[in-house]
Specification:
about 170 residues, mainly alpha, two-stranded antiparallel sheet, 5 helices, 2 strands, about 70% helix, binds zinc ion
Length: about 170
């Protein structure tokens, strides 16, 4: 079924339509029908593309927002790591300091000997140092022991706090 459209168009448009009809071996009316149909399809395709662009812009904005949140999380985690590292560094420094003397051989004992190996570092002695903490505190420098426990407590406190926050 076909209908008739009467339309007044500029002379240039009419001339271009005539030329298109000649080149494609059609009547002007049939050429115009083809051109109008093609124009309408193109317009609808452009409208679809415009809608798709709007959708994609929305998706991009959401992805950017998520990336921003992830960046903020990374900054917080790096800050936590820095705090823990500096507390850990303080503990590591403190662990290497002389803490007192071995109750058996009188050799020097560090925080690391007491808390990590638990033994006198003197190869000839190697006596367990656990007794230093409970029954024989006389072998220890009390001030150094308190500083060591303070540094250890700080690391444990930060680690515990960070675990709770996560
Ligand atoms: Zn010893």
């Amino acid at each position: 079924m076909s209908e008739v459209i009467y339309a007044r168009v500029p002379s240039e448009l009419k001339a271009a339509a005539d030329e298109y009809a000649r080149e494609n071996d059609r009547t002007t009316a049939s050429a115009l029908a083809v051109l109008i149909d093609r124009g309408l399809r193109t317009t609808s395709t452009i409208r679809d593309l415009e809608r798709r662009v709007v959708d994609l812009e929305g998706e991009l904005a959401a992805a950017r927002a998520r990336a921003g949140e992830h960046e903020a999380t990374i900054v917080v985690l790096l800050e936590k790591q820095k705090t823990l590292e500096s507390a850990y560094q303080a503990l590591a420094d403190r662990m290497g300091k002389g803490l007192g003397r071995c109750p058996a051989c009188e050799g020097p004992v560090t925080g690391q000997d007491l808390l990590v190996s638990g033994r006198c570092p003197n190869a000839a002695c190697q006596k367990g140092l656990a007794s230093l903490l409970v029954s024989q505190p006389k072998g220890l420098d009390e001030r150094e022991l308190l500083l060591l426990i303070g540094a250890l407590g700080l690391v444990l406190g930060i680690a515990l706090m960070q675990t709770k926050n996560e």
